[in-house]
Amino acid sequence: MTDDQTTEDARVSNATKTDEEGRISNATLDATEGSNLKSDPTSSLDEQSEADQIADSDTFPRSYVEQLRQESGKYRQDARDAGARADDLAKRLHTALVAATGKLADPTDLPYDEAHLDGDALSLTEAIDELLTRKPHLAVRKVAGDVGQGSRNGTGTVDLLGMLRGNNV
């Protein structure tokens, strides 16, 4: 047997030692973790000694705690940023849905309400109709009739010379 096989056998036998209730003892876990850390060729001595300190004591080194706090801070900031982006996108979606109805001249006149996005289109339409009954001046205005522009002779062409001659008195 080689030394590697002996070490592996010792690790396996250590991992299977349990107490009366079937739990693996802390000493067995610490021995197993320590052997795994030492067999990893990519870990440096500093990482091994810090990991040993963490495994052996109930308190953690200051550098490790600061590292965990920095990492947690990044995750909290990412969550805040994602929440702000989601809120912004929800407001943009609300404005787009209001504009798609074509009932309001300015889609931002209807205040944002999350219930308009969660419910069906009926809740949004009812909210727009209620706003228009209170403030009818916010409705879209459509031009109808003759507004003084475009072709008047019905042919589709414009005769500027004829228009000038017709206005001479």
Protein architecture, described:
This protein is mainly α and 169 residues long. It contains 7 helices and no strands. Helix 1 (3-15) runs antiparallel to helix 2 and helix 2 packs antiparallel against helix 3. The longest helix has 40 residues, at 62-101. The radius of gyration is 38 Å and the shape is elongated. The chain starts with a helix and ends with a helix.
Keywords:
169 residues; mainly alpha; 7 helices; 0% strand; elongated
Secondary structure blueprint with pairings:
Blueprint: H1 3-15, H2 26-39, H3 45-56, H4 62-101, H5 114-118, H6 121-134, H7 160-167
Low-pLDDT sequence parts? 6-19, 21-41
Rg over C-alpha atoms, rounded to the nearest angstrom: 38 Å
Rounded to the nearest angstrom, the distance between the terminal CA atoms is 124 Å
Tally of individual helices: 7
Helix/strand structural class: mainly alpha
What does the main sheet amount to? none
Beta-strand percentage range: under 5%
Mean pLDDT: 74
Helicity, as a percent range = 55-70%
Order of helices and strands: HHHHHHH
Coarse shape: elongated
According to DSSP, the number of beta strands is 0
